[in-house]
Design goal:
83 residues; alpha+beta; 2 domains; 2 strands; extended
């Protein structure tokens, strides 16, 4: 939660001085916002950065990695489906 507030506070300054842009996406979801995000993802204007994928059995390891702020993107926990 602290990182979110830091990004909100420092994001504009970082965007102006660096080569990367920082945006804060609202956590409140409604259908209009989800459709807008879907369009951005499909067009390639927004590209998620995935740092690593962990199977469900290594979720604790994934969370420890994330908590230590080593992640440079999203940490994904995958769940296999048995069909």
């Amino acid at each position: 939660m602290i990182q979110l507030f830091q990004a909100m506070r420092l994001g504009r300054r970082i965007s102006k001085t660096g080569s990367q842009k920082t945006y804060v996406v609202s956590l409140v979801q409604n259908q209009k916002d989800l459709i807008f995000m879907k369009e951005l993802l499909e067009s390639g204007k927004v590209v998620p950065v995935i740092d690593g994928c962990y199977p469900l059995g290594k979720a604790v390891e994934a969370l420890r990695y994330f908590e230590k702020a080593h992640a440079k993107g999203k940490v994904v926990i995958t769940v296999e489906q048995n069909n």
